[in-house]
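Quick one:
INPUT:
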């Protein structure tokens, strides 16, 4: 493919419509993240823009010289991206230490380290991160995933394009092979993203291989730009308006429940490609009439900084202000991050991007960018391993950690909630203090399979206890392990995350659909119990808002038919906030982090219904509330032990301290 003689008249070095489209993309991203407008696809538009701009630069250089100066290319990228990113990464680290949860600080610094070396997208994919989670699990560095993909693209793209162009000229004396190669990348990467979304959505969302097609499509438009520049201007104008409409409409149709990337991102991606393609012909009445204006031009100039700043402020803002987000706070974050972007653009970005010494001597640009990257990574590593945690709670070194010691210990903890009595080591260990015994199946598991880690207690015990339920059954693992050893009983766990053993439908927001895996898993778990016939079956679960009496009756009837003695453990309290984080952040921790009984024992009517259903089918009910609550409160620390390792699950050590609480009832059941 060669340039037409009229192409220089239409193919411009500077495209106002692209600058305007860059502004539209960042407005979409900020509006969606801040909850101002539910419109998606801004990052996908940016990917296409990046692919087109980089592709245009590389292809033009290949046309002129037959090669690409990697030093000049990478120097331009470093000057453009590294200084601003380094400044924001370090600044966010400081803000995180000052305001965020001390326990999350270390995880944040891990993310900051991955972001500084452009690999955070793979870290997020490995961790199974839900990008749209709204549970406080998001990292202030999470948005660097897209920059990581772009920078990985910048490292590899020039090498691949030069190779493809050389082979194409050698074999066919034109660029056909380059086009075929790009089409293969677009098609293959899109297919990988589409087919990976259902089985492994985090990998599909964050993976370079599932997103690279969006950048490659931009390069493909750059390759076709000479041909597209000869498009009749009326048709080109219509194409550009169609593209802008496609970006907006498909962006509005995507919701947080849409499986992404899947096929849905194709709308904003194709729309962006159409806008760019139509603009190649420089039509007088194209979408550029709307996109080319001083406001969008300025927003486009500072869009990189706005992207860098808005997300960490959004994540850290509740910690900074000390209360939950309001609508006005979302606008404040959007405005403040924009102002910081303007300051960063002029104080940091321009100083390096326009530095004459770095422009004239590209190797200095590469060294400067490398120095920024290495220094930022070093700062994050020091913060991860050297900087002490910023604990607000007054802790004591020698506070005994006994946990539950009878009802009096709970009442004493309630009375002492204004005078913290927890050792620093216990507090620091709390987030990782989970049960060491028993198994639990993940969301995608559809059938229970007995494994070695599902058994605990006495492996050769004369009696068998089965614990059936969700994570609120699994959390008792340490207690039942010790109980089994005390009573010479084998204990097995049949647990699946978020899956009530009672037969009613569950819809999960993170899946955006019915939790069908739960229904099939529950069926297989009940079949396993029917086959193995344990002596005692314990049911424990998190109360679900969709619980029904018919579903509870169906499950308890099936369990009774096994001939086992039935036990129903009433649901444990549900604080609804990260207890270790609260304890570490609040100077009046035990008071602030101790919910009232009415707050912690949520869904009281459904709790009562499940208990009544269990009793109706002959189950012995063990009311767990006295082990957690007294005098109208459910304390966060009892007997020097942190009770929960997250927002609702017991720490393993506190669960183990509850063994004497359970033992009398089970000794009697097994003896009978």
């Amino acid at each position: 493919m060669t340039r037409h003689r009229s192409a220089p008249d239409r193919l411009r070095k500077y495209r106002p419509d692209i600058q305007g489209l860059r502004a539209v993309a960042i407005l979409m991203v900020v509006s969606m993240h801040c909850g101002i407008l539910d419109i998606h696809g801004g990052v996908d538009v940016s990917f296409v823009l990046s692919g087109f701009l980089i592709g245009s630069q590389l292809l033009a250089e290949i046309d002129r010289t037959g090669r690409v100066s990697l030093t000049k290319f990478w120097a331009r990228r470093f000057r453009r991206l590294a200084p601003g990113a380094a400044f924001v990464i370090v600044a966010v680290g400081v803000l995180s230490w000052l305001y965020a949860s001390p326990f999350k600080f270390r995880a944040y610094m891990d993310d900051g380290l991955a972001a500084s070396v452009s690999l955070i997208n793979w870290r997020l994919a490995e961790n199974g991160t839900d990008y749209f989670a709204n549970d406080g699990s998001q990292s202030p560095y999470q948005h660097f995933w897209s920059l990581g993909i772009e920078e990985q693209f910048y490292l590899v793209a020039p090498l691949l394009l030069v190779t493809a162009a050389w082979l194409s000229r050698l074999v066919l004396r034109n660029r056909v092979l380059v086009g075929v190669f790009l089409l293969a990348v677009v098609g293959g990467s899109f297919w990988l993203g589409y087919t990976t979304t259902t089985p492994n959505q985090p990998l599909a969302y964050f993976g370079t291989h599932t997103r690279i097609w969006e950048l490659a499509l931009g390069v493909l438009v750059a390759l076709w730009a000479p041909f597209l520049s000869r498009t009749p201007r009326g048709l080109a104008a219509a194409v550009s308006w169609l593209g802008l409409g496609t970006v907006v409409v498909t962006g509005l149709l995507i919701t947080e429940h849409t499986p992404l990337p899947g096929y849905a991102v194709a709308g904003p991606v194709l729309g962006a490609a159409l806008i760019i393609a139509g603009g190649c012909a420089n039509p007088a009445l194209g979408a550029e009439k709307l996109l080319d204006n001083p406001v969008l031009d300025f927003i486009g100039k500072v869009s990189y900084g706005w992207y860098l700043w808005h997300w960490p402020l959004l994540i850290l803002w509740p910690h900074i202000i000390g209360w939950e987000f309001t609508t006005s706070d979302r606008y404040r974050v959007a405005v403040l991050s924009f102002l910081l972007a303007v300051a960063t653009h002029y104080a940091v970005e321009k100083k390096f991007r326009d530095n004459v010494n770095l422009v004239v001597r590209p190797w200095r640009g590469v060294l400067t960018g490398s120095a920024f990257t290495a220094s930022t990574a070093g700062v994050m590593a020091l913060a991860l391993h050297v900087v002490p945690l910023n604990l607000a709670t007054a802790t004591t070194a020698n506070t005994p950690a006994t946990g539950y010691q009878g009802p009096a210990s709970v009442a004493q903890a309630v009375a002492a909630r204004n005078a913290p009595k927890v050792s620093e080591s216990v507090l620091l260990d709390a987030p990782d203090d989970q049960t060491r015994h028993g198994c639990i199946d993940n969301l995608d598991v559809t059938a229970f399979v007995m494994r070695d880690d599902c058994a605990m207690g006495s492996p050769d015990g004369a009696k068998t206890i089965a614990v059936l339920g969700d994570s609120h059954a699994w959390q008792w693992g340490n207690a039942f392990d010790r109980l089994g050893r005390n009573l010479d009983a084998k204990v097995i766990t049949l647990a699946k995350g978020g899956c009530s053993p009672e037969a009613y439908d569950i819809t999960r927001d993170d899946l955006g659909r019915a939790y069908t895996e739960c229904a099939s898993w529950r069926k297989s778990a009940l079949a396993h119990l029917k086959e193995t016939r344990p002596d005692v079956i314990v049911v424990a679960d998190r109360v679900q808002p969709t619980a029904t009496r018919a579903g509870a009756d169906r499950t308890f009837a099936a369990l009774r038919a096994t001939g086992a003695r039935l036990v129903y453990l009433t649901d444990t309290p549900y604080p609804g906030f990260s207890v270790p984080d609260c304890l570490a952040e609040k100077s009046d921790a035990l008071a602030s982090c101790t919910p009232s009984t009415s707050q912690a024992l949520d869904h009281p009517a459904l709790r009562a219904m499940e208990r009544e259903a269990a009793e109706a089918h002959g189950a012995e009910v063990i009311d767990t509330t006295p082990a957690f609550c007294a005098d109208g409160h459910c304390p966060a620390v009892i007997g020097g032990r942190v009770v929960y390792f997250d927002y609702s699950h017991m720490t393993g050590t506190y669960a183990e301290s509850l063994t004497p609480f359970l033992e009398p009832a089970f000794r009697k059941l097994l003896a009978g």
